[in-house]
């Protein structure tokens, strides 16, 4: 049975993000095919996709290698997310389906319960599912794809500290869903902007000397008016 290239692509991408394939290391079709138990054809297709996404580069005399992003490139990703996550929430308020709302509300209930009990290990995956579903609810395949790629790349380049106030963080998730459910696109955008900006402060670059990069990105943004967000 032929394994689809997108499944191989997902497996290689996940291993790059997890650090199994280190930055700058070679990615040979033969070894990858053996590792993932597939032929070289889906591996070749997957590498082309990953190159287009920025995870892989092709070097002369070396072939495909894991990309080595600069600190500036990593910083740009956080700035892009600060702009696009609120846009996605705003669009979700206009285009979400009842199925999206059901999943979002279920995730908020689970997240708030885990946060109250201090189950921090569960919160990271729940947070990822929440933002993935919110991106899908925006009704724009291009924006959904961009937000998904941003999350993958940021997870690859940054170590993320657990939020200092998980209960408050999940209360913000709940407020976002409430705004989306009411179709209030401006409030959904505003709350998500505040939420994303706060989350950015917990990101620390995994490479180079950019330990304070996320803090500088956060401080470089225009102040967000938070008045009225907690009523």
UniProtKB/TrEMBL annotation:
PROSITE patterns listed in its UniProt record: HTH_GNTR
Transmembrane segments: none
Keywords carried by this UniProt record: DNA-binding, Transcription, Transcription regulation
Compositionally skewed regions (Polar residues) per UniProt: 220-231
SMART domains: FCD, HTH_GNTR
Pfam families attached to this UniProt entry: FCD, GntR
Domain HTH gntR-type, residue spans: 2-69
Cited InterPro entries: GntR_C, TF_FadR/GntR_C, Tscrpt_reg_HTH_GntR, WH-like_DNA-bd_sf, WH_DNA-bd_sf
Transcription regulation listed as a keyword: yes
Region (Disordered): 208-231
Name assigned to this protein: GntR family transcriptional regulator
């Amino acid at each position: 049975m032929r394994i689809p290239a997108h499944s191989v692509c997902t497996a290689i991408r996940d291993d790059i993000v997890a650090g199994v394939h280190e930055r700058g290391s070679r990615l040979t079709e033969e070894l990858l095919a053996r590792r993932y138990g597939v032929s070289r054809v889906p591996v070749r297709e997957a590498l082309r996709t990953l190159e287009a996404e920025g995870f892989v580069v092709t070097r002369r005399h070396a072939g495909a290698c894991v990309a080595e992003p600069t600190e500036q490139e990593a910083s740009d990703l956080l700035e892009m997310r600060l702009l696009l996550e609120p846009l996605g929430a705003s669009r979700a308020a206009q285009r979400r389906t009842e199925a999206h709302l059901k999943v979002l509300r279920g995730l908020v209930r689970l997240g708030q319960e885990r946060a109250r009990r201090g189950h921090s290990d569960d919160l990271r995956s729940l947070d990822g599912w929440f933002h993935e579903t919110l991106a899908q609810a925006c009704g724009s395949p291009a924006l959904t794809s961009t937000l998904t790629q941003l999350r993958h790349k940021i997870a690859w380049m940054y170590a993320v500290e657990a939020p200092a106030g998980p209960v408050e963080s999940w209360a913000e998730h709940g407020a976002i869903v409430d705004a989306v459910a009411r179709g209030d696109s401006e409030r959904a955008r505003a709350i998500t902007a505040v939420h994303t900006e706060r989350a950015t402060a917990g990101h620390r670059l995994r490479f180079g000397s950019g330990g304070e990069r996320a803090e500088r990105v956060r401080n470089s943004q225009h102040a967000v008016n938070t008045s009225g967000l907690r009523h």
